[in-house]
Amino acid sequence: MLKDTHHRIHDYLRISLTDNCNFRCTYCMPEESISLMPPQKLMQTDEIFSIAEVFTSLGVKKIRLTGGEPLVRKDFTAVVERLSMLPVQLTLTTNGMLLDRYKTTLQESGIQSVNISLDTLDPVKFLQITQRDQFQKVWNNILMCLDQGIYVKLNIVLIKGFNDDEVFDFIDLTKSLPLHLRFIEFMPFDKNEWHKDKVVHNRIVLEAVTQQYALFKLRDGKNDTDTKFGILGHTGTVSFISSLSHSFCSSCNRMRLTADGKMKNCLFGAEEFDILGAFRNGENIVPVIERCLMKKHKMLGGQFDDYTRVDPDTLQNRSMIKIGG
After folding, report:
1. Per-residue pLDDT reduced to its tens digit, 41-96
2. Which fold has domain 2-323?
3. Peptide bond into 282 cis (omega under 30)
4. Which pick of 204, 219, 240, 279 has the fewest CB atoms within 10 Å?
5. Which 3 state secondary structure label does DSSP give 166?
6. Residues with Cβ < 8 Å from 156, sequence gap 6 or more?
7. With contact defined as beta carbons under 8 Å apart, do 138 and 69 qualify?
8. Cα–Cα distance measured from residue 60 to residue 75, given in angstroms and rounded to the nearest whole number
9. What is the pLDDT of residues 81-105, one digit of tens each?
10. H or E stretch including 115?
């Protein structure tokens, strides 16, 4: 069992497979182009499996594959085939563009839930934020997943003045489609054009939604990051991830592995612990994992406690694309 000094049990591992992506979303990638990690620095298929196996032996029950965009890795199928052998729930976060290419992989690996990032339903704004004219392709792949019976969560980062006028449009989708919406507050990372005035407070969104729709509270899991609601007459659901205005740090059970094998104990944490380096040196990585957790701060990586006073230039962290979404 993996515990930190605040008695939080950690049984959820997020593994970034790559820092590469076929989209260029501004809130994830720095405005200037980034240099990709050289292939030899990335965790290889066997290394991902062996390291994940150690984590599962320590009590990890869920693994989520992230990026970058995990599906741009040429060995994605091989990675998933290996990880599906472990006694864990295997899930995926993706921008959705390449899902049709891996339809069989998803079926055979037992991945039953995917999180798909979709910040707008407007093809013009989609092109604006991703720099790719691929809205219809992504939408078709969302429908493909639903047809396969996959549980689909849509991750929607709300940015004031960009897509905060689309909340009702998204919710209307859930009337006929079993989509599970997750409205996420815009978070500060290295050079991602964040400003406190761009944050859409989820409390305000919830108040507006409540006036328009008949919501009823759903039960939240012990370690859930979102507050969930059903909507009367709708097949889908809506939830709110208020990482800035109402953090879920007290029940956090998450650990992260970057694509180059560094362990982070918090999305906002500055410290990293070199799991891959220790593994390649033939060392026991368990003490490194435990040391990382012992350094975990009580809240938001110890970097801030009030987002309205955050200066993003003073935060010590990677860009989101190099951490893993």
Report:
1. 999 999 999 999 999 999 999 999 999 999 999 999 999 999 999 999 999 999 99
2. TIM Barrel (3.20.20)
3. no
4. 219
5. coil
6. 118, 119, 163, 170, 181, 182, 183, 184
7. no
8. 23
9. 999 999 999 999 999 999 999 999 9
10. strand 113-117
**From the CB of residue 317, how many other CB atoms can be counted at a distance below 10 Å?**
20
Distance CA 255, CA 293 (A): 8
CB atoms within 10 A of CB 154: 24
Q: Which two tokens stand for residue 97?
A: 């563009």
Length of the chain counted residue by residue: 325
Amino acid at 93: T
Burial (0-12, 13-18, 19+ Cβ within 10 Å), 63: buried
pTM here is 0.94
The token pair that represents 186 in the structure block? 């815009």
Distance CA 200, CA 91 (A): 28
- Which helix (H) or strand (E) segment holds residue 145: the answer is helix 135-147
DSSP H helices in 228-303: 275-280, 286-294
Residue with tokens 């008949």: 214
Structure tokens at 101: 């290419």
Asked whether 95 and 23 are in contact (CB, 8 A), the reply is yes
| Encoded amino acid at 190, one letter | D
Q: Locate 292 and state its tokens.
A: 């990382």
Question: Residue 164, exposed/middle/buried by CB under 10 A (0-12, 13-18, 19+)?
Answer: middle
DSSP character for 249? G
3-state secondary structure of 9: strand
